């Protein structure tokens, strides 16, 4: 064991010495490994960060949640021209499902409307996401209220002028003051603040309600009108925990088909989107992105491997005399083999560490520019980068190491002179 530690120590010395004595040559040889590791880890970090952000935006909803709309959240065989003819889900259909779906824990009607500005005296909160939802949405998303309360079913049905503010919106408007009972202006109307959502933290895919405001859906329906295609209506359903999912979806689909008068041969003119299916689609998509990125980055690593192999062949050539002396003094073939293998691995790992350092710098810069989006260089990705570097060094160094270990000591010494 001690002999291998000694070989490792000497190999590290030779690798560092090669860097010091032939800086330009060595750096050019390591550039391929550095670029390859940078490419691979940058792709992995970017895809992991994107996946975490998207799933974080969905984490407030249970995986069993179902969203019924005229749009599909994933791939579909229905042609686009036909999907464009699908009608929006209606408030009446929401009421129908609320009454008739026995195994639903909660059913909510949601309108997606543009962001607005909310005013209080001389202060304005701009670009506020307006969540126009019925009262049941509070149970579906399990919203946490920091102050006050969420509006109830009666207020939702009659479209009462009440509003529940996200944490950041309340801070911008009231700056630490008491928001409950105050009147703010939205859509040119007065709304009474009845609650404030607990701070959730940043999220750029809708995962945070800090910059949102909740208002009764029927009030927004009166403002936009029931037939507006710009509001993107949805019926959000949370099944009971012990329900059979396939049976529940089949019953839900049949209820809507009957209500819409669809014949047996007609296709569904709506989509029942399951959140679990969406997360599976995200996993599949990010997996494909990772694979494509790894294939492209692999070409950079191939070039890097050739660079390491080249510098090792040069190193064997320069140290032929030294190899001959070592073997004449009793050094075994495996000692010479491991010496050059360790050197190749150490050189490759140095190139990989430089690549990891560049990814870390790039992630800091990217995060500073994107604000809420966080690029994450995980320990697992760092381990992958280091391991791949070592493997590339091992593969690139094996042929030069074997050729060095098989040198005849007499010929090696004579060649040196």
From TrEMBL:
Residues 26-254 form the MacB-like periplasmic core domain. It is a multi-pass membrane protein. Residues 295-409 form the ABC3 transporter permease C-terminal domain. It is found in: Cell membrane. It holds the Pfam family MacB_PCD. Keywords: Cell membrane, Membrane, Transmembrane, Transmembrane helix. The chain crosses the membrane at residues 27-47, 291-314, 335-362, 382-404. Signal peptide: none annotated. InterPro entries: ABC3_permease_C, MacB_PCD, Macrolide_Exporter_MacB. This is ABC transporter permease. It comes from Salinimicrobium flavum.
């Amino acid at each position: 064991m001690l002999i291998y530690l000694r070989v490792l120590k000497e190999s590290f010395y030779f690798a560092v010495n090669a860097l010091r004595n032939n800086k330009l040559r060595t750096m050019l040889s390591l550039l391929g490994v550095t670029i390859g590791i940078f490419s691979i880890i940058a792709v992995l970090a970017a895809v992991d960060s994107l996946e975490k952000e998207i799933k974080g935006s969905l984490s407030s909803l249970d995986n069993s949640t179902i969203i019924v709309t005229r749009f599909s959240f994933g791939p579909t065989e229905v042609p686009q021209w036909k999907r464009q003819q699908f009608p929006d889900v209606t408030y009446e259909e929401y009421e129908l499902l609320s009454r008739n779906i026995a195994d639903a824990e909660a059913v909510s009607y949601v309108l997606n409307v543009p962001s607005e500005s909310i005013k209080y005296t001389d202060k304005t909160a701009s670009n506020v996401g307006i969540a126009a939802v019925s009262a049941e949405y509070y149970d579906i998303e399990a919203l946490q209220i920091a102050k006050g309360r969420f509006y109830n079913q009666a207020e939702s049905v009659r479209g009462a002028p009440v509003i529940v503010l996200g944490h950041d919106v309340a801070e911008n408007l009231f700056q630490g003051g008491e928001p409950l009972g105050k009147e703010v202006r939205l859509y040119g109307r007065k709304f009474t603040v009845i609650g404030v959502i607990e701070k959730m933290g940043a999220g750029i895919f809708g995962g945070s309600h800090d910059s949102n405001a909740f208002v009764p859906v029927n009030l927004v329906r009166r403002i936009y009108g029931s037939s507006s295609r710009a509001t993107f209506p949805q019926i959000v359903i949370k099944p009971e925990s012990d329900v059979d999912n396939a049976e529940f979806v089949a019953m839900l689909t049949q209820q809507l088909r009957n209500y819409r008068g669809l014949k047996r041969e007609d296709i569904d003119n709506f989509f029942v989107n399951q959140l679990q299916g969406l997360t599976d689609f995200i996993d599949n998509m990010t997996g494909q992105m990772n694979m494509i990125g790894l294939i492209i980055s692999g070409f950079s690593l191939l070039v890097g491997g050739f660079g390491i192999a080249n510098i090792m062949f040069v190193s064997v050539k320069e140290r032929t005399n030294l190899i001959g002396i070592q073997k004449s003094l009793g050094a075994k073939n495996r000692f010479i083999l491991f010496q050059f293998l360790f050197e190749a691995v150490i050189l490759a790992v140095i190139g990989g560490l430089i690549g990891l350092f560049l990814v870390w710098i790039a992630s800091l810069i990217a995060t500073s520019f994107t604000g809420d989006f966080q690029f994450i260089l995980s320990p697992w990705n760092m381990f992958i980068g280091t391991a791949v570097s070592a493997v590339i060094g091992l593969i690139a160094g094996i042929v030069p190491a074997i050729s060095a270990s098989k040198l005849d000591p007499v010929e090696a010494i004579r060649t040196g002179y």
